[in-house]
Amino acid sequence: MHPLDKFKHCPVCGSTRFEVHNAKSKHCADCGFTYYFNPSSATVAFILNERGELLVCRRGKSPAKGTLDLPGGFIDMQETGEEGVAREVREETGLTVVRADYLFSLPNLYEYSGFMVHTLDMFFRCTVADASHIHAEDDVADCFWMPLEDIRTADFGLESVRKGVERFLSGHAASAPSIHQTRT
Q1: Which member of 14, 68, 118, 179 has the lowest number of beta carbons within 10 Å of its beta carbon?
Q2: What are phi and psi of 148, to 5 degrees?
């Protein structure tokens, strides 16, 4: 199934001749418009307290409702990754991010309203102003501090977050990878 199969009409002229052009685009045979399906940007925050515990959330909504997660979410228009992660952390936990350092990114699939959204999840190590006053808000059912040795990555419901936590715990996230590294 093509990722744009739910889009039956050209968004420019309304034609029904909006057809698959290649693996990542559809093209209108009437007006010539081509739409490229690119991933949405999202953020994920690693926040450690003074005891070295990780801030973990429990998802309050689907997908993966009830599983573990980290604070984060979709970037808004005209927002940087750093602004987006700070906003999402504030919305979900009430904490104020004072520093956000980019670590790495991972692709993800996120189902929303029956539509599979391809995302590029950007992971940040965040420092917050006061880590003692967390409270679950927005789409988070609960948030709490968890000792790193107690974390089981299998408890995280979203694949990219699970992989990100594995990478973070393994210590490979200490510095951002070189842009010259090749994918394996």
Answers
A1: 179
A2: -55, -35
